[in-house]
Amino acid sequence: MDVRNTVSAERPERGGEIAFDQSLAGLAGIVVKGFLLSLATSGIYRFWYATNLRRFFWSRTLVDGSPAAYTGRGEDLFVGFLVAIVVLAPIFAGLSALSLLLPDSPVIAYGLGFVALFLLGQFALYRGRRYRASRTLWRGIRLGQDGSGLVYAVLAAGWWIVVLATFGLAFPFMRAALERYRIRHTLVGTSRMESRARGLAVLPSWLLIWAVVVGTVVALTILAMLGIHARGSRLGEVVLPILTILVTLPVPALYPFYRARETRAFLSAIRLGEVRLVSQMKAWDLYRPYLAYLVQCLKLGILITVAAAIVVVIMMVSGDAVAHSVRFAIGAVIVVALYAWYLVSSVVLYVRVLKAGLWRAVAETTRISDVAALAAIVASAGGMSSSLGEGMADALDVGGVLDIGF
Amino acid sequence: MTALTGAGRYFDGRTTRPVPVSLRLEAGRLEVSGPDLRRDWNGLDLRAEDARPPLMRVGPADTPERVEFSDEALAAALEALCPDLHAGAATEGITLKVTLWSMAAGIALLGLAAFGVPVLADALAPLVPVAVEERIGAATEKQIGYLLGNPAACSAPEGQAALDRLVTELGAGLPPGLHVSVRRSTTANALTLPGARVIVLSDLIAQAQSPDEFAGVLAHEFGHVAARDPTRALIRSSGIAYLLGYLVGDLAGSAVIVALGETALSAGYSREAERAADAYSVAAMTRAGGDASALAILLDRIAADTGEDLAFMRSHPFTRDRAAAIRALAAAAPQPLEGRRPILDAPSWEALKAICAAPASR
User: Fold this and answer.
1) B135: closest chain A residue by CA
2) So where does this one cross the membrane (chain A) (predicted)?
3) How many Å apart are CA B262 and CA A226, to the nearest integer?
């Protein structure tokens, strides 16, 4: 048995571990059921699926030995979604009417639409977080979030303008500012969280990525110019495309490195009264789930290819033993079965390997500095908040079922 | 029955302070005892929260008090003892309800997309102001030109004059903004855009073997103009895509599902619109004294069905069905008394065929 999952009643004054279930028993069942029922109900079951996933992830996360609890309900999310449709419908109608009325200046229509959807999306993300916080309990203490979704949306928009104006250099400062707003409006019972996240702390890691991106753009420009001159030659046809791919590869590969540094800095900057969080996250902790997911997907692909090859060989060997139409029917059934197997397996892999892996990476590299001081946290009388934000986030396709971290 | 004992932690639900306690399960009751603490809970009242076995977090349903312990024997005994241990927590039982209701809702939304939206589009299309339609048409024409690779507009003066005569003859009763243009293309087709704009791709003129064949197609497009089909189709497909997009949500491949669904749902209506435009063509050709069945000859020649593709996905009806319907309508139409002559005289038809020839080369 994993020692971190046992109750440490005998040594309560030690620093508290945050642990995540190692076996993930039962998760695949939730995913398969959720995926198939979502298909069968043309997507409406997704709200209950998301709820089941969250219940699983929350309850398998042990903070100082006690599991977190998610008390949200699929009905809440569904109602929030319905309300969001009604709220969004006139906005969407207005935006499309605008683009019809101004066909000659599409930039204005697109620009306005983009700004409106961005603000709505940020608003939805913030309010969705409020819903999740107010449905999260630990040792019977409810989390909560105040602050204004509108202020958050404006703050995010303003910071994005700064980021664009500085060619991306301000990105870590934006992340820190938004993190501070979120954390400082997060409550555990009656205790307010405090964040001392600073953009400067992660600026060096960001500069590394930034330099690579700028270098890539410069390199691609040079390659493109070379390509114009070398058209038709071996250099232009073979070498330059390969170089282009090689030059572009490091950009996405470096982002987890930055996210790991940021997670470590921002989580360690969180205070709750006397309690501090300490994150030991290394870049490798985030790369591992991605690599594991990649490997598992490759294995699945190979497995399915081999299965398909075996089927083809059997069909060819069996020859004219069965009628043509029967063989066609059997072949169609097998193709559908293989495709269904592939779909279901890849969804299971995505949740079990990637999502759970990232979740575990954050949970298990984080500790609570002083568990004894946690005893000062007292339940609040605050109620639960509405699910409009979650519904809107779903309708706008922003945010995920499982947002990692606080 | 012997008593089961174990160690655990007690939480009062108002603070996060853990209190080490000893647990004792006997005669259907769970006893919790620790420093200054003594609870005696009835097993029937106990509820367990989600946790990974063997960890169990359990307490009475009506208080926030809980004990946590990791003891397989004790957990198994509680599972056996308390019938309502997991009641009210899980979404069991609700799954079937949700599935059935949401399937019903999905069917209702699909029904709305399939039957409600087209009715709405029919009702809304005439309400769109001409100026707006005109603007949309201009923007769409730009877009189409871009998609076709910005083909040159063909307007050799003699050809244009012949085309204008055909348009005047066939387009009686159409809105005054009617605008027919010819674009150089290797595709034989004609399109109608919102705002009474018709684009003829030049290969259609090249492939037509008589002026009546070409005039039949032109009259068919005028049928779309008269019915404001492009505006209707625009409203309809955006409405359907909007509804299906909400319905499908964030599932893998949802964009494909929406696109397929939109095509399938729109196709039925556009097939109907095509038949109506064919009927309009026959009527207009008959009125102008042309050969209304020439359209069927042209269709049979250049748009022969290439196979049994998915009939319900086709935006146009099968050509053989269309051609047969056109011939039947043409046969039923009143025939001109003094015998039939081509709708354009030979020199005009030659000029129209040369509408794409650059003026400089002649």
Assistant:
1) A103
2) 24-48, 77-101, 107-128, 149-171, 206-226, 238-258, 290-316, 328-351
3) 44
Residue of A nearest to B140 (CA): A103
- Report the residue count for chain A: 406
pLDDT in tens, B3-49: 889 999 999 988 888 999 999 998 889 999 998 889 999 988 899 98
Q: How far is B7 from chain A (nearest CA, A)?
A: 8
* Tally: H helices and E strands in chain B: 12, 11
d(CA A32, CA A345): 8
Secondary structure (3-state) at A276: strand
In this structure, the answer to whether residues B69 and B129 fall within a common structural domain is no
- Are B111 and B238 members of one domain? yes
Instruction: Name which of B206, B219, B213 is nearest B180 in CA terms.
Output: B219
What does A250-275 look like in DSSP terms, one character per residue?
HHHHHHHHHHHHHHHHHHHTEEETTE
Q: CB–CB of B134/B178 below 8 Å?
A: no
Chain B residues with beta carbon closer than 8 angstroms to that of A22: none
Q: Is residue A215 part of a domain?
A: yes
Nearest to B91 among A51, A62, A85 (CB): A51
Contacts of A54 in chain B (CB under 8 A): none
Nearest partner of B20 among A19, A7, A63, judged by Cα: A7
Q: Which of B15, B132, B247 sits opposite A42 (nearest CB)?
A: B247
Domains in chain B: how many in total? 2
Answer yes or no: do B169 and B42 share one domain: no
The answer to whether residue B57 sits within a structural domain is yes
CA–CA separation, B291 vs A147, rounded Å? 74
Q: Does the interface predicted TM-score (ipTM) exceed 0.90? A: no
Tell me which residue range forms the domain holding B352.
Answer: 106-361
Pick the closest to residue A54 from A137, A122, A141, A153 (CA basis): A137
CB contact under 8 A, A377 and B15: yes
Q: Can you spell out the DSSP letters for A86-123?
A: HHHHHHHHHHHHHHHH-TT-HHHHHHHHHHHHHHHHHH
Structure tokens at A239: 């070498």
- Whether residues A347 and B252 touch (CB distance < 8 A) is answered with yes
> What is the DSSP pairing of strand B46-48 with strand B55-60?
antiparallel
Across the interface, of A37, A59, A66, the residue whose CB is closest to B68 is: A66
**Is residue B214 situated within a structural domain?**
yes
Alpha helix positions (H), B250-304: 254-287, 294-302
- Does residue B193 sit in the same domain as residue B322? yes
